[in-house]
Specification:
Helices cover 31% and strands 35% of the residues. It is α+β, with helices and mostly antiparallel strands. The chain has one domain: Gcn5-related N-acetyltransferase (GNAT) (Aminopeptidase, 3-Layer(aba) Sandwich). The protein binds coenzyme A.
């Protein structure tokens, strides 16, 4: 497996990994899966800003991706980023998420970020994401309760933070 910067050519594979998490999962609070073209625009926006978007690839297949973008738009947040990490279901629990997140932390530091925030949808239920982030050195910093609703269920959002 290699970890490398993403390009627009990876958009379809990335959209295919993300779509089931949108349509059947609760980690993402989106409810309509973005198209490959939408995803290409998202990738371009992150890369153009100088922020990292990485993919994990093995035998020519994209197994997962991770990116970092400014946490909130206002200027004083410029050195704080929010991260996202998604791994294809078929590749779960093989260290892909860990490798992506470790490489993303390095890349985000090199891009000038000092703090990284994981905003974890279904934070009380998403054990996989919370354990992955804890294993990568994130600490628990907060829990927003009942702030999302999907599939008829109220969802919490957990915040975890890592100093880069
Ligand atoms: C969270 C996610 C990215 C983890 O990716 P992964 O490649 O399966 O994770 P790894 O194999 O690198 O696991 C690293 C560690 O995280 C923890 N972990 C990962 N999946 C877990 C699970 N299902 N249950 C409990 N712990 C889990 C474990 O501590 C694991 O180490 P171990 O396998 O040695 O016990 C993946 O489950 C995923 O894409 N989930 C859906 C989307 C999502 O929730 N993304 C995060 C958004 S904030």
């Amino acid at each position: 497996m290699i970890i490398r910067p993403a390009s627009a050519g990876d958009a379809a594979a990335i959209a295919a990994i993300y779509a089931p998490e949108v349509l059947t999962g609760t980690a993402s609070f989106e409810t309509e899966a973005p198209s490959a073209a939408d995803m290409a625009a998202r990738i371009d926006k992150v890369i153009t800003a100088g922020w990292p978007w990485l993919v994990a690839e093995a035998d020519g297949a994209i197994l997962g991706y991770a990116y970092a973008a400014q946490f909130r738009d206002r200027a004083a947040y410029a050195q704080t980023c929010e991260n996202s990490v998604y791994v294809a279901a078929a590749a779960h629990r093989r260290g892909v998420g860990m490798a992506l997140l470790a490489a993303l932390a390095d890349a985000a530091r090199n891009a000038g970020f000092r703090e990284m925030i994981a905003v974890i949808g279904d934070g009380s239920g998403n054990t996989a994401s919370r354990r992955l982030h804890a294993a990568c050195g994130f600490r628990d910093v907060g829990l927003l309760t009942n702030v999302g609703r999907k599939f008829g269920r109220w969802l919490d959002v957990a915040y975890m933070q890592k100093t880069l």
